[in-house]
Design goal:
five-stranded mixed barrel, mainly beta, 9 strands, about 150 residues, Virus Head Decoration Protein, Chain: A
């Protein structure tokens, strides 16, 4: 945990001069509390006890019809239970699971209908706070997103 907080690192001019998109994200390593697919939105595994509750993450489940406000980020790769899983906890995630109605600039809330999948926020609704926003429209329920720092 706490592997890197650099969000504004800029590559020296001798190496090309401009930062890449990967320098605009914070990635943390957790343990998977169950099966997690690449692109899933994840949350802390509160079924654990003590500090393991924030060491383990699980695919964010659907919580009622208001969205899951407990999402902490997007899994970069798939993992089985007790395996390491890298999670974008802030910044750019190139392939996040999103609802099929997602368009560019949509605010996103945690899963409403499908576990691990963020959905467009509906203004004026009673949904949970947004967890990020879409940087593009979805293609087959996947889009580049900006993850709001919640961890």
């Amino acid at each position: 945990m706490a592997t890197n907080d650099m969000l504004q690192y800029l590559e020296p001019a001798a190496s090309g001069g401009l930062a890449s998109a990967s320098n605009r994200q914070q990635v943390e390593t957790f343990l998977a509390g169950g099966a997690i697919a690449a692109g899933d939105w994840v949350m802390f595994d509160t079924s654990k006890t003590g500090p393991d509750r924030v060491l383990y993450v699980i695919e964010a489940p659907v919580v009622g019809t208001h969205g899951n406000g407990a999402c902490v980020g997007v899994a970069l790769g798939a993992a089985a239970a007790d395996e390491n899983v890298r999670v974008v906890v802030a910044g750019y995630a190139a392939t996040a699971s999103v609802g099929g109605a997602t368009v560019i600039n949509n605010l996103l809330v945690g899963p409403i209908g499908t576990p691990g999948m963020a959905e467009p926020f509906i203004a004026g609704s009673t949904e949970s706070p947004p967890v990020g926003f879409a940087l593009e429209a979805d293609t087959a329920n996947v889009a580049a997103v900006w993850v709001f720092k919640r961890f």
